Each structure stands twice: as structure tokens, then as C-alpha cells.
């Protein structure tokens, strides 16, 4: 791996090497400057964060130099054939992520070790046939992005994220603390 890393730096000096490995962590991740990925848990069935948490933690175990993650900022309906042309099909096929859901995914990614965030939404937001949803989602994405930017000193501090003791009443809960 170290030979591959040196070769990449020689072939592309002053360039970042980004490996986007969406599906699973891999032992070759340390050759990259940045390991990128995404996982979108907000869907019509609800929010399931555990798989997202497990993916980022597993990638961290592969020791990449940095993890940049794409928290969910889009509606799964955009992946349904014909939904961009049919507002009723779009409404039935997915749902807009709420601001709290977008923020929850981003915070979870940050507590798991992600230090860069891509809230890409342009690829589908302006194709949404439910026109009243477009400005609402864009406003949500911008607000979440602003808060994450304000948290940059904590996310980039280099201090470990502290896991805090808590009592679960119903579902598994993770409580973590950032410090600067």
C-alpha cells in the first residue's frame, strides 16, 4: 500500500487522491487522501441510521487519511423511473428528508469520524415535479450546511469524540460530545 501511495503522489503531485467506496470498507483505503462515501437512510419506511453508522465506523477502521461523506439531502423518489415527470408518482415513491433528519445523518457521520461533507442535492432537486417542495428542501440543506460549518472547530479539532453514558428508554441511542 505504501508503494502505491508513493506512486500516486509521483504521478499526480499536489493532487488529492479520493476513493469513493460506497458499499463497503476495503484494505486499500489508506492509499487515498480522502475516502468518500454515502448512505441514504431516509426513505418511505423511515430513518434507519445504524447501517450508516456501521459503514463510516468500518471505513475509519481502514485508517484513511480523511473521510468525506455525503449525508442525505435528496428524495429517493428521484430514482424511480418516470417520477420526474409525474408529481403523483413522485409523491407516492418517496418523501422529502426533514431538516432534522438531514442534520441527524450529518451529526452521526461527524461523530463517527467524517470531517468533510457533501450535501449534494442539485442533481435531483430542480427535477422535482412537486414545485412547492423545491425551495423548502433547498432552504433545509442550506441551514444544515450552515450549522455544520459552525461546528467545524469541533469536528476538525482532532480531539476524540467522547461517548457519554446514558439510559435507553426504547431504541438504541448514541450520545457523543465534541470538544474544541
End-to-end CA span: 33 Å
Order of helices and strands: HEEEEHEHHEHHHEE
Q: Please report the total strand number as a whole number.
A: 8
Residue share in helix: 25-40%
The tally of helices reads 7
Cα gyration radius (Å):
18 Å
Quickly give the structural class: alpha/beta
> Unreliable runs, pLDDT <50, ≥5 residues?
none
How would you describe the shape?
A: globular
What amount of the residues lies in strands? 5-15%
Q: Would you tell me the overall average pLDDT?
A: 84
> Can you summarize the main beta sheet?
4 strands, parallel
Spatial ordering of strands, largest sheet: 1-2-5-6
Defining traits:
180 residues, 8 strands, 38% helix, 12% strand, globular, two-stranded antiparallel sheet, four-stranded parallel beta sheet, alpha/beta
What would you say this structure looks like, in words?
The protein has 180 residues and is an alpha/beta fold. It has helices at 2-11, 50-61, 87-93, 99-111, 122-125, 133-150, 152-155, and strands spanning 18-20, 34-38, 42-43, 46-47, 67-70, 116-117, 162-163, 176-177. A 4-stranded parallel β-sheet has the order 1-2-5-6, covered by helices on one side. It has a two-stranded antiparallel sheet with strand order 3-4. A two-stranded antiparallel sheet has the order 7-8. The longest helix has 18 residues, at 133-150. It is globular, with a radius of gyration of 18 Å. The model has no long low-confidence stretch (mean pLDDT 84).
Task: Give the helices and strands, then pairings.
Elements: H1 2-11, E1 18-20, E2 34-38, E3 42-43, E4 46-47, H2 50-61, E5 67-70, H3 87-93, H4 99-111, E6 116-117, H5 122-125, H6 133-150, H7 152-155, E7 162-163, E8 176-177
Parallel strand pairs: 1-2, 2-5, 5-6
Antiparallel strand pairs: 3-4, 7-8
Helix pairs in contact: 4-6
